[in-house]
Amino acid sequence: MGGGKLQHESECWDLGYTCVAGVDEVGMGCLAGPVVAAAVIFSKGTEIPKGIDDSKVLSAKRRNELDVFIRESALAVSIAWAGVDEIDSINIYQAARLAMKRAVEKLDPLPDFLLIDGRAKVDLKVSQKSLIKGDSLSVSIGAASIVAKVYRDKWMCALDEKFPGYAFAKHKGYGSREHRLALQALGPTPLHRKSFSWTPV
């Protein structure tokens, strides 16, 4: 097996776990759109694509390439999300945890251990470990961050056509200057999180 940071996965395998899932989310800091989570399981012995890392440090082109490789080589990949109404109702942190829980529950086979990016835990009776900067420390979490980012970016590009004038395809819902100028001029859409504040330009 090659091409990744497998220390944490290897520790789990050595303890007898066989389905170790990396879990991550994207979109927590956005002003608009859902928070999307992904979960990825690699089998022990799988040849893992080189270059898997925190999705934020990769170019869009490289993320898209790796997304294909991950889906082809992983034992299981799943994606789930929490929508804007849920974010506004239960807060973004809880919505991200909910999205991650949903992603884990959709895996087939179900995992027996979770490696989760950040400090969060998932409300499931599965052994789990949270890793700060996990998307750069664990190949499974890094893969999940890539899959989630590619999926969410495509979703926001599609929404750009439905809600023209906000440049969602460009900033993907994050609070860029262009996005905040559009909010000033046009007001919020149903995609915008009412519980989030933004600073006018």
Please give a structural write-up.
The protein is an alpha/beta fold and 201 residues long. The chain has 8 helices and 5 strands. The protein has a single domain (7-186), classed as Nucleotidyltransferase, domain 5. 43% of the residues lie in helices and 15% in strands. Strands 3-2-1-4-5 form a 5-stranded mixed beta sheet. Helix 2 (60-73) crosses helix 6 and helix 3 (84-90) crosses helix 4 (92-106). It is globular, with a radius of gyration of 17 Å.
Give the overall shape, derived from the CA principal axes. Answer: globular
The helicity comes to: 40-55%
Rg calc: 17 Å
Level-1 CATH class name: Alpha Beta
The residue-averaged pLDDT reads: 95
What is the N-to-C order of secondary-structure elements (H for helix, E for strand)?
HEEHEHHEEHHHH
Beta content comes to 15-25%
Secondary structure: number of strands: 5
> What is the CATH superfamily label?
Ribonuclease H-like superfamily/Ribonuclease H
Q: State the secondary-structure class.
A: alpha/beta
Q: In the CATH classification, which architecture applies?
A: 2-Layer Sandwich
CATH topology: Nucleotidyltransferase, domain 5
Termini gap: 49 Å
Query: How many H/I helices?
Result: 8
Summarize the biggest pleated sheet: 5 strands, mixed
Count of all domains: 1
Report low-confidence residues grouped into runs of 5 or more.
none
